[in-house]
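Assess the record.
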Amino acid sequence: MTEKIINAMSVDVEDYFQVSAMESVISRSDWDSYACRVEQNTRVVLDLFAKNGALGTFFTLGWVAKRFPALIKAIVDEGHEIASHGMAHVRVSSQTPEVFRQDIRDAKALLEDTSGQSVRGYRAASFSMTDKTNWAHQILLEEGYSYSSSIYPIKHDHYGMPDAPRSAYQPIADSAFLEIPITTVEVAGRRLPCGGGGYFRLLPYAVSRWCINRVNTEDKMPSIFYFHPWEVDPGQPRVPGLNARTRFRHYVGLSRMQSRLDRLLKQGQWSRMDKIFLDVESA
């Protein structure tokens, strides 16, 4: 009998006001003036995972870890992986190599000190690695990271490297360092997104489930799924001044997200990125 593929579940731990699409109306200098909801929402996610026996990787902002250390400890205590999302959700493509190095170094040190767990993984804000930031992988390796999950191999107006591999690959020659892209599916010669996020809220649930099953059965690959804690929070404050596209993308389907996640977790096996791709047996 063929062994069932275990898929990778990941959570980008950031608050609703830290989303890149809101940068035009919310300044980082004002973040502390907003009522944080990330702790309560992440605990909802933890309860949902515990209910369904699922493990995941939590790509966490240093900004969040600094303010909610008890949340970081709770994530680790429940068996999940802590990984880095940088300090303050700044796109890689807007940083110099020197600034990027300091950011990922600071985030790694803070997350490790807070969690007591080695930080191996990194995810760029808004999947902002591009063909112009190939230097970032080498810096991640030099700073002690083992993998990145920072590329979405599709076309998108805010992110995407449509020509990147669909499966995990080694972007640095003679190195075991991995880039693990968000999952896409190929249908009739076209790549379609099926790794979570807004697509999971917007499209019928059956579409996501079919795509994940196809990747598992046809490509024989684990799927990498992602979402944010704010996506399980339909009661979050509405941010004024957003354009119509951003409002739609951010708020569509929030009321059904938690029930869809519950259904998804029940219909498959989900684990941490490091356990699936690095063969890590314990935290």
Q: What stands out?
A: The radius of gyration is 18 Å. The chain has a mean pLDDT of 94.
